[in-house]
Specification:
33% helix, Peroxisomal Thiolase, Chain A, domain 1, globular, 2 domains, 418 residues, 15 strands, 14 helices
Amino acid sequence: MTARVVITGLGVVSPIGIGVSAFWKAALSGRSGISAIDSFDPFPMDGYRSKIAGQIRDFSPELHIGSQHGDRVDRYAQFALAASREAIADASLRIEQEAPHRVGVIVGAGMGGMVMGEREITQLYQSQKPHRVHPNFIPVITLNSASGIVAMASGAKGPNLTISTACSSSAHALGQALQCIRTGQADVVIAVGADASITPLVFAGFCSLRALSSKFNDQPERASRPFDLARDGFVMGEGAGALIVESLAHAKKRKARIYAELSGYAATSEAYHMVIPREDGEEVATTMKLALKAADVSPSEVDYINAHATSTSIGDAVEAKAIRILFKNRADKIAISATKSLVGHTLGAAGAIGAIATTLAIQSGHIHPTANYDDPDPACRLGGISRSPQERKIRAALLNAFGFGSNNAAVVLKQFKA
C-alpha cells in the first residue's frame, strides 16, 4: 500500500510578506508586491528595458536568521533558511527528538548564489587580485549551499538534495520529497524553494531575452498580469517557500496538525525548445494527467489549479489550452489563480510559494485573486479566473510549474481526510 504523505508546516519569505500570516493576508487582499528597482549600484536603471521587480525590501538577516548564518551565505540561502525555520516551528517539529537520519532536506533553486557570484567576479576583474576573492566564494555560490545550510542549522542528517530545473525547481523538490518518503528514505523532508537573482547580470540577461514586462515601468503593480490581453512578459521576483512534508503515520505519531495531503507528482520533458513550450498544449496536459493518475485522483475531483501563469504571451495561452484539453467541459468550472500576479516570478522558489498558496486555499476554503485580470485574453479565457477572492471547498488541487529546457512538473494536493 502506498504511504500517505501530508504537509504539516509552512514558511515563506515573499515580496508581499515575510511569514505565512502576512503573506496570506496580502494574497487574499490581492496586494501587489511589484515595485520599481531604484538602481543596480553603482549604475542606474537607464540601460534596462524592464525596471521593476518583486523585491523583498524589509528582510534583515540578523533578525530572521541571526548573524552567524547571515554573514556566511548568499541572499537566496538566507531566504531559504528563514522560510525553513518558520516551517519547522509551524509544524512543531523538534528535530533533536527525531532520528536525524530520517529527516531530509530537498531544495529547489534556479540560479543559486548570484548576489555574491556577480559581486566577486566584478571585483576580480576590476582589481586583478585573485588572492582577494572571498574565501567562501565556492561553497557560497554552489547551488546546494542552501540545502547544506538548512541541514546544518536544523540538524537534519537524511537525504540532502538540490533540484535545479529553472522555474519548476521547487515543484520538483516537493515531488521528490513525496517520493523520498514513499520509498522509505525519510520520515520527514524539509522541502524548500529559493532564489534571489535580482542582480545586474541576471536581470540584464532576462531583458536581452525579451522575457520581462517593460510596458508598465511607470505602474509596477500593474505589470504582472497573467491571462490578460495586455500582458507583455513576466516580472522577476525573489523569495523562498518551505513546506514540512512527512508520512501520515509519522505525523499522527507526534500528533501534528495537518494542512493538506500531498498525493501525486509528475515530471516530464517536452524535448522541444529551451524557452518556448509546445503551442498545442498537449505536453502540459499530459503532465497534469500523469500527476492526477499518480494521485489516484480523477479530473472530475479537481476544484482548483494554482497555475504556472507567468504573464508571458505564449506560456499563459498554452497552459490555458492544456487545461481545456484535460478537463474538457469542466475547464470553466475549476477555480484558477496565479500567485505570480502578486509576487512576480520567483524562479526556483515559484513552485514552493505556489504550493503554500495552494495548501492554504485547501485548508481555509479561500482562493486568492489573480491581480490585473482586467481584459481577459480570448486565447486563454477560463471561467474560474477571478480578480476577486473566491470561496470554494477544495477536494483536490493541481500545482503547475514549467521551466526552461522543456521541463514540466505538476503536483497534486488534496483535502486531508483521516
